[in-house]
Amino acid sequence: MAEKVEKWYPGEGKLTPARTILYVILMVGIISAAARLFLGLGATTNLNDAYPWGLWISFDVLSGVALAAGGFTMAAAIYIFNLKKFEPLLRPAKLSAFLGYLVFVVGLFFDLGQPWRIWHPMVMWNPHSVLFEVSWCVMLYTTVLGIDIFIFALERWKKYEWVAFLRNLYLVLVVAGVMLSTLHQSSLGALFLLMPEKMSDLWASRAIGPLFFCSAVIGGMSVVILESLISSWAYKRQAELKLLSSFSKGLGIALLVYFAMKVTDLYARGATVWVLDKAHFFFYLELFGTVALPAILLSFSEVRHSIKGLYWAAGLSAFGVVLNRFNVSLTSYGGYRQFSYFPSFIEIIVTLSLIAGGILIFDWGTRYLPIYKSELSGGTH
Amino acid sequence: MSKAMLIDTTRCIGCRACQVACKSWHNLPGERTEFSDTWTNPKFLDSNNYTRIIFKEIDKPGGQLSWHFISRRCMHCNDPACASVCPVGALQKLENGPVVYDDARCIGCRYCMMACPFQVPKFEWGSAVPLVRKCDFCADRIAINLAPSCATACPSEALLFGDRNALLKEAHRRIGAHPAKYYPEVYGEKTVGGTSKLYLTAVSFDELGLTHQGFRTDLGNIPYGIYGREWMSKVPWIALTVGGLAVGLHYFNQRRAEVQSQKSQESQEGKED
Question: Which of B247, B254, B242, B264 is nearest to A82 (CA)?
Fold first, then answer.
């Protein structure tokens, strides 16, 4: 099987225009990141005392982790809810989840004032801190995903006795992954429980933990759909439309549940919803444009069964999750701070290069590792 | 005994001796100052300025002006949000009052800056290896029974250092003795669970218009760290519930699928017979 993998895709290993652009972005990003390390955060970013958290927290950390929720969502669907038909979607989801967490860790490394102390939470404990819990969960979960990816590599190297041994542990890995993900996906929202006084009423909710968890599931599911559509387009394969249509029903349900949670929460807190200002514009865009709209779209069978329809519905929901994270961590403070914040060139290019790096590794991984259905050598865990 | 400082803003003359004393005790660099629309200098707290006096002019009826000088610095909360959120425990409330910061632990995540209800912790943005900086209540001086440098320098006894309970008693005595002079509330007595800096003002902070400059009046009396700790107390239970449910559902659904496939097999066999 493995020999087949080596010559599997058209254009493999060639420097296509798309790859060239990604490599250029990556190179500029690496230079910018080096500048950030040597010159410091103040010189290279637009962060300041009024905006201690900016693009890197909003995108690399909060959005990145939410969009990488596909790994645990798929594992839960397949192993816990026994929806075995979705198995072909599992491996790419795990690979993209692992890359999402790598983006998170690398992004956080550059965001920290003292990057080389990133290991401190391992030995210096503060069990009162939500961020302490998040860092432990992320550390452990990235390890779980790393083991998953390592199993793929072992298959590639034909170390089948190792693969068999590690597969005996799969239930432990799945349960640990689901548990750790539930905790840190919701706790990333709980970080903001401490600052209701600084946030807009629209997002300062006591229920922000469960809301973050639910929207992370949406983010994970929509990325699984997008990733499957994009890779079948990029590698010129037939899209697994039948499977994706069935899967997108689940996304539609998750969107409806999330919409109901959001509305209930806003109503219960008596938040002022009908005002026209900048915060409310982004709020309407988030709730109606990226939660309600894709939910309505997915209720149509025609949409679920067309590639274009799935692109739109999954794209909108994924964008909505990102928008929500930006709203909670940036827009929400607009009325509170005396200043405004817009990321610097270096902040933007470092984030872009993290995305580019993620895509390049994914591209490499799909070519080198047994990721897709046709390459599986037996078991699937 | 927890130490505190009574800041009687009606006694402050705006000389800024406290700012100078703070800089010299903490070895902070001087800066070129700038004119602005107020007499306040510097314009913000930052990593080189742990304290500053806010100069506030309030219009009085009849075209008169009244001056208010408000010394701003870390409030040294009894139950500080910054210490509660710090993932590595770099910030700590000492028993004798100060909230102190450990340079060697900090990873620079800046969650303390986000969480502080008074927007006090500041970051060394100019440095390649930045740390968080804020007023430390001269913890090193208090440890050897000296008053904080600002209180020592104050010529008008606007900064009174002492035991928190005694200072609270004194604050309420002043309000009772001069009801016309003081707003009848000690800012910091109950705010966010009480702070080690206690403010007496002539008018409320709302009227002073400082709610966006670190003196919010809508903070309530509950320490903000509680919200995070409340969440953290649930975490082990969420973990157990989710883990248990995951294992249980896995076996349940697996068994159900087995039974189903067996049934369909049996019914097929039945048809064949």
Answer: B254
